Inverse folding.
């Protein structure tokens, strides 16, 4: 248990559906991340939010839309996805500043399958 | 352009011996380097980190070495145990420029009993 909770753990959707992934942390962290892990590929950084402000968009297609309403919650809204978007989507958080070690705390991931 | 590289996709080691996992990076601006362990269908779990101002950090069976001139770091596990079998990711983190943490492709470690 890392203190970062992702829901749903598994999601199957059609290419015309709209769905959302949710991430929640109560660790007092102030930076939150979305990563994508596809088979046999490195973890790909998608978005970074720092104090609710997006500080990084790693050239992610607009069919992925992040939302960070507060420093404890992060969403990834999905619409008109493609089958190649099927992957494990990982949320992470970290503490900025002070005695931090750069450590990211990861959720268990949301396994997405696009049909 | 891959900023963090793990060139060995897999490593096989006998139980009780040392496992050495390697990682190279290209950006001198990283502040921290980290190692994560990952099992299938789970998120990565933090193992150990090192600040860019240090050259060694030890935690139990795990030691990370940083060679800044070579832009290289390594993770030593000794003695290796079968439970260490997993995928190990090297990561580099910057405290400026968006607080990015970039991961390598991972090395799958097999520890044989």
């Amino acid at each position: 248990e890392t203190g970062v909770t992702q829901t749903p753990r598994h999601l199957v959707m059609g290419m015309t559906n709209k769905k959302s992934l949710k991430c929640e942390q109560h660790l007092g962290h102030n930076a939150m991340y979305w990563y994508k892990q596809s088979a046999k590929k490195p973890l790909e950084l998608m978005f970074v939010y720092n104090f609710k402000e997006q500080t990084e968009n790693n050239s992610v297609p607009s069919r992925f839309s992040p939302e960070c309403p507060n420093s404890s919650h992060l969403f990834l809204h999905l619409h008109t996805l493609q089958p190649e978007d099927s992957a494990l989507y990982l949320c992470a958080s970290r503490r900025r500043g002070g005695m931090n070690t750069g450590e990211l705390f990861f959720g268990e991931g949301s396994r997405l399958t696009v049909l | 352009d891959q900023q963090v590289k793990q060139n060995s996709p897999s490593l096989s080691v006998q139980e009780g011996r040392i496992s050495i996992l390697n990682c190279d990076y290209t950006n001198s601006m990283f502040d921290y380097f980290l190692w994560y362990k990952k099992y299938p269908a789970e998120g990565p779990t933090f193992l150990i980190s090192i600040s860019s101002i240090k050259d060694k950090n030890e935690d139990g069976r795990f030691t990370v070495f940083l060679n800044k001139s070579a832009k290289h770091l390594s993770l030593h596990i000794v003695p290796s145990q079968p439970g260490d079998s997993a995928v190990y990711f090297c990561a580099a983190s910057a405290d400026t420029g968006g607080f990015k943490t970039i991961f390598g492709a991972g090395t799958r470690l097999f520890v044989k009993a």
Q: What stands out?
A: Chain A touches chain B through 29 residues (CB under 8 Å). Chain A has a mean pLDDT of 90. The longest strand of chain A covers residues 18-25.
